[in-house]
């Protein structure tokens, strides 16, 4: 295999007297349908950034390990003079001209995954570097919002990810394996991925894509054909666990990013809704008997005493078929939709009890860390 080659043998050049080769100097006709997306990408790529995390090496440690720290593996903060040891690499996207940057939570965490890195450095395409402030991180969705000191910065606009369809052309941009800013292309392979196909976050609603995503792409954008931010590249699934791309990439959809990032930028935390209900997807055989086979249905498996669902009269065994009159695919989609509601909002649940349809209005409570 190619990875086992350790040397490249160069053969002696042979003179070809009197031979010339013809070159056509014209660029391709990029206006031709399907010929190129270079112009679109040239507009959005300046908004994509590389993100490095580092820890300050105290002077006492430097003196103790003098000569044993590889100078090629450390950074120097030009403003403070501090010596920094790199700990992580990822990508991100500027989403506001005043310097708001989105990335993955795991990109800006220390190796222990429990605390935010002391130093987060954002590098733009024009090689400008900024020391970023982490405004907030959310473990439930693996989203983080950073702020850098800048004005009139290039930024990407969000797309409405609810309108994405399987087969849409997409582009993944980032700094994979620290090789430099890279674009790969593919399609939306699936929508609403969670659970076994997700990565274990509490609130998953991934866009699956076959655009090549590798370590270092985390936090970078998934761009649609019009140059809008459709999602944030977050995870990959591999056959061997070695971390290489096999065409199974997962991106957080734009609409989820917008709702989480707005809370993080404003409050430093995410405020999620709760009604105190747990459910399970209704088996197809039962859904068919109730003429629900073409849409999702959820059987209530648990009602928490004293919380909004119980106060609204829902009971274990009720079959929820719509939220605010709109159907949903499964329990994960319903749970995610409820979590995105703000405390105090009133939602309507359509449900079936003992074969008869009914509805109830529920006032949303705030989800806390212990529920």
Describe the model:
The N and C termini lie far apart (51 Å). The chain contains seven helices and 21 strands. The chain has three domains: 107 residues, Thrombin, subunit H (Beta Barrel); 107 residues, Thrombin, subunit H, CATH 2.40.10.10; 94 residues, Pdz3 Domain. The protein has 371 residues and is of the alpha+beta class.
Give the distance, in angstroms, between the N- and C-terminal Cα atoms: 51 Å
How does CATH name the architecture of the largest domain? Answer: Beta Barrel
* Percent of residues in beta strands: 25-35%
Fraction in helix? 10-25%
Instruction: Write down the CATH class of the largest domain.
Output: Mainly Beta
Helix and strand content put the structural class at: alpha+beta
Number of strands: 21
Name the average pLDDT.
87
| Rg, nearest Å | 25 Å
Number of helices: 7
Determine the CATH topology of the largest domain: Thrombin, subunit H
Q: Per the principal axes of the C-alpha atoms, what is the gross shape?
A: globular
Provide key terms for this protein.
371 residues; alpha+beta; Thrombin, subunit H; Pdz3 Domain; 3 domains; eight-stranded antiparallel sheet; six-stranded antiparallel beta barrel; 7 helices; 21 strands; globular; disordered N terminus
